[in-house]
Specification:
It is built from four helices and nine strands. By secondary structure, the protein is an alpha+beta fold.
Length: 189
């Protein structure tokens, strides 16, 4: 039996140490958000959109009569979801219709991180709910949210967003300030 020489063992140890160091430098993969227990104090109560996110939504909503799908990138701050930007989800145009949209891959797989939720549009501004009105029966949007790992989900419906957190409470966020709505109503007369 032949024994390896000391320089060969030294090189092997250096290579092993370098590979270990490289593996330690890799960023941790994004982890799914654990659903909060009902009534838990960490449930988001506010959705805050940056100016970029608002502009992106306004442009997307006007641009296409089919549903769009976006990745909300941001963070949870206390009981608020802060959306820094909205990035386009990886959607094949053939899989986007006026009433349905499907992503080809998860937001993180498409390079969007940290994703805290998804947002899609209802171009006709109708059926903007996660549970059928007056019931606890989940719509297809509610069922889709239940299957995803994110903290929140949102539907853009014209000048407002309907959104939901893991507490299953639907909330609304206006995209237009009250003064702008009044001016818009007057100019439409």
């Amino acid at each position: 039996m032949q024994v390896a020489s000391r320089p060969v063992l030294t090189r092997a140890a250096i290579v092993a140490a370098a590979l270990t160091a490289l593996l330690c430098l890799q960023p941790e993969p994004a982890q799914p958000v654990e659903p909060a227990a009902p009534g838990a104090g960490s449930t988001p109560r506010a959705l805050v959109l940056s100016d970029q996110a608002r502009r992106y939504l306004a442009l997307q909503y006007r641009a296409d009569p089919t549903e769009f799908l976006g990745c909300m990138i941001g963070e949870l701050r206390g009981r608020s979801v802060v959306v820094w930007r909205i990035a386009p989800a990886d959607v094949d145009p053939a899989h986007s219709t006026p009433t349905h949209v499907v992503a080809e891959q998860a937001c993180e797989a498409a390079g969007w991180s940290p994703t805290i939720g998804m947002i899609h549009s209802h171009p006709d501004g109708e059926r903007c709910w996660y549970y059928f009105p007056g019931t606890e029966v989940a719509s297809s949007d509610g069922q889709a949210f239940a299957r995803q790992p994110y903290a929140v989900d949102a539907i853009m419906c014209g000048e407002h967003i309907v959104w939901i957190g893991r507490d299953k409470a639907e909330r609304q966020l206006s995209l237009v300030a009250a003064g702008q709505r009044a001016a818009s109503a007057i100019s439409n007369r």
